[in-house]
Amino acid sequence: MLALGISYRLCMMAMPFPILALTIATFVDSPDLRGYPAAPILLVLITLLSVATALTIKAKPEVVKSPIYQCDKGTALLMGCAGGVCIMLLFRLFGFFGDFGGRASELNFGSKSLKHGETEPEENIAFSFSFNSFGHCFQGASAIFLFAAVHRDLILPILKRPEGLVVADLLANSMIVYPVYNIVKRGIKAGSTFSTSSFCNNASEWGVGFIFALYTGFLISAIGGGATADPRKTILSPQTQKLLSSCRIVSGVLLMLTSIAAAVLFGHSWHVKYDGHYTEDSDDDQGLIFLFLILPLVVALALTLYLRKRDFIHDEDHKCAEATNEMGKVGGGGGGQEVI
């Protein structure tokens, strides 16, 4: 565990440097900042988060030994596969071994393949300041709920109910909804021209949300520090913990299959030229994106209510502590502290 803590600390301390290098690379790509320099702006914000995390860990090196940094298989799988998708998109954005005609500083992936009836190709640009762009980003940002420190320092103090931990944990799984939908839609409608499809700009918007969630989670974990364990493991019942862990593993497997499919489709269509290759690809419907944002919350609330009805949420020891506190308050002792 000590070696793992030291390795984690070194990773967090070194984290700002590759991001800073990537930021400089995008600035070089757009030295006069003409056009739409979205990438440098976003990367500067991510760099600030990573620097803040590194400085916090340097000031409090003991935090990396905390149980709050322990990561289960499902969480590791989700983070690893999401990171893999982001690396693929970064590779595509800079157009390595391919001539896509884009510009990294503008998050421009080049021209899309022509749709039937079109004479001029549409630019494949991420973050067009539309509802869909921020909807994709928000779904990626749901990865923030993978961090135990977020549950400990934000969810539990704000909601003050164990049920809130269950809802937030389930919402973490919603990060896979859009990538799975995106790969299925683009694979069917634009499989032969996948490298120039809307998968690139839409998935990159999702990826930016994930990266912001990742670095924000690192920062919250570093600021909180201490030796406090994951509240889900001390408050929730073993049945609920097992269910939540299984959900994360299933979601991780689905995201892994999505990333593999994306890699295969990218490889298949990497050198496909625009001329003569038409696509049936289309923009996402705003109503569908709104549904992707609302439906996971509805499902999470419904499942939480079901677990509460079955009395599966609270750990037995936690329920005993609650009962003791209630008895102390009824007895007028006034010294009993309520356990949430």
Automatic annotation (TrEMBL):
Sequence intervals crossing the membrane: 7-28, 34-55, 76-97, 206-228, 249-268, 288-307
Keywords of the record: Membrane, Transmembrane, Transmembrane helix
The protein, known as: Uncharacterized protein
Entry superkingdom: Eukaryota
Annotated source species: Triparma verrucosa
